[in-house]
Specification:
This protein is an alpha+beta fold and 97 residues long. It has one domain. Helices cover 45% and strands 18% of the residues. The protein has a three-stranded antiparallel β-sheet with strand order 1-3-2. Helix 1 packs antiparallel against helix 2. The longest helix has 21 residues.
């Protein structure tokens, strides 16, 4: 899970749209992607549609690409999309996912 403040800063940098701000936003995203690659969390949960704790922000562009490459959609629970790391098979599910 990443801090809300970090996400808001990234989104604001993208909103500014100038090349320096966009580069800064991408660098900040890469920090989190590097962390995910190192820790390899089994699940990624997108809470943006749920509004968990009034947290209705989209997954950032580079992180979305990372999740699409490394995770598969598993299920939705209370408007939260749950993704599992490729290669992980939850108990009770066939490996044909």
């Amino acid at each position: 899970m990443w801090p809300k403040t970090g996400l808001l800063q990234i989104l604001e940098l993208y909103r500014q749209g100038d090349p320096v701000s966009v580069t800064d936003a991408r660098n900040r995203e890469m920090h989190w992607i590097t962390w995910m690659e190192k820790k390899k969390p089994v699940l990624f949960i997108d809470t943006s549609e749920n509004g968990l704790s009034n947290f209705r922000y989209p997954v950032t562009p580079l992180l979305r690409e990372y999740v699409e490459r490394n995770y598969y959609y598993l299920t939705t629970v209370s408007k939260m999309k749950v993704y599992a790391r490729k290669g992980f098979v939850p108990r009770g599910r066939s490996s044909g996912l």
